[in-house]
Specification:
Blueprint lengths: L2 E12 L2 E8 L9 H11 L1 H8 L9 E6 L8 E7 L3 E2 L3 H13 L9 E8 L2 E10 L2 E8 L4 E10 L3 E9 L3 E6 L12 H18 L13 E12 L2 E10 L2 E2 L5 H13 L8 E6 L5 E12 L2 E10 L2 E11 L14
Parallel strand pairs: 2-3, 4-6, 11-12, 13-15
Antiparallel strand pairs: 1-2, 1-18, 3-4, 4-5, 6-7, 7-8, 8-17, 9-10, 10-11, 12-13, 13-14, 15-16, 16-17
């Protein structure tokens, strides 16, 4: 064995969604802004992402976050969000997880009853508050980037006809589709059908519906299709599943989805400033709470600042070794040719 690099990680999950938090062994990431660091990492250090989050160390649904020095003077840490398959401008699940890891490993002093952290991200400063009791982190809440509902639109899908979707931005672009309108129930027994339908819808909505963030023209692709059932049971406002790849689906509701969903609810007059909704993942039943903090604008686009709340847990410590003799040291995924 010839060790070319050792990388220190904390493994976590938030509401069932696994995130590998990378704390040490990251080379210098150049850039005067987090957007520049994000671009530099993608171009020069992507082998680290694939090595740590893909097989044999990870799997195709693993999330990850690289913890860096911040650029902004007000921030405590800089973060780059990624997964086994891609990078994210924002990721709610990894925000919950990195907060848990930073506090419970002592990288941020645990202050009771509330510990505050500022994360420097692609989209700007993210303010996080963690409830702490006896050194243990409980509920974690962060104010997301400004989020907004764009429009309700219809598009054509082969073998299905016209489908209506709500398009909204919560850090990523989402297409919300009523599960009953496309004649599918959100249950595990329908998983294969939901994946196939979700990918078909994702392909067609991106062909037929144009999106572009008012302040960042690179954010111009709908990343996920979200199937929803409204008011499925008492205490739950939305039961959802998110589809973003052939075998890729969130185990949690997803923070960016929760933000986009409550922005849509606000735009439709279903909630007001200060009110919250509860969202449940249709696969495993994990939950997020989303609240409207205030109204704002993104360029000329009416928007809101949402607050998202969930929990996270540490699941292990991982010291990854990159062996120069290992032909699979930079990872792989099993996908159809």
């Amino acid at each position: 064995m010839i060790i070319s690099r050792i990388v220190q990680c904390v493994d976590t999950h938030s509401c069932g969604e696994p995130t590998r938090v990378v704390l040490g062994g990251i080379p210098k990431v150049s850039g005067k802004t987090m957007k520049e660091k994000y671009a530099y990492f993608k171009s020069n250090l992507d082998d680290l992402r694939t090595a740590l989050f893909q097989e044999p160390r990870g799997f195709d649904n693993m999330l990850g976050v690289f913890v860096l020095e911040p650029v902004h003077q007000r921030a405590d840490f800089g973060v780059i969000y990624a997964s086994a398959t891609q990078y994210f401008e924002m990721c709610g699940d990894s925000t919950f997880s990195v907060t848990k890891a930073l506090i419970e490993t002592g990288m941020i002093e645990a202050i009771e009853p509330v510990t505050k952290i500022r994360l420097d991200t692609y989209g700007g400063i993210v303010e996080v508050e963690a409830q702490v009791k006896n050194g243990v982190v409980g509920d974690i809440t962060y104010q997301s980037v400004p989020t907004f509902f764009l429009k309700t639109t219809a598009f054509n899908v082969p073998n299905l006809g016209k489908v209506t979707a709500d398009i909204a931005f919560g850090g990523l672009w989402y297409a919300f589709i009523d599960a009953h309108a496309v004649k599918v129930d959100i249950t595990l027994k329908n998983m294969k059908r939901i994946f196939a339908l979700g990918m078909s819808l994702l392909e067609e909505v991106n062909k037929q519906v144009e999106v572009c963030h008012p302040l960042d023209r690179s954010l111009n692709t709908i990343s996920l299709v979200t199937f929803f059932e409204k008011n499925p049971k008492k205490g739950i406002d939305y039961k959802i599943v998110n589809i973003y790849g052939d075998n890729a689906s969130c185990r949690s509701p997803a923070g960016t989805m929760s933000a986009a969903c409550i922005a849509t609810c606000f735009a439709k007059g279903e909630v007001k400033v200060g009110q919250q909704i509860v969202l449940e993942n249709g696969w495993i039943g994990s939950q997020h709470r989303a609240k409207v903090v205030e109204e704002t604008k993104v360029g000329d686009q009416p928007a809101i600042i949402p607050a998202l709340t969930a929990t996270a847990y540490l699941t292990g410590l991982h010291q990854a070794i990159l062996d120069s003799e290992d032909p699979y040291r930079y990872g792989f995924l099993l996908t159809e040719a």
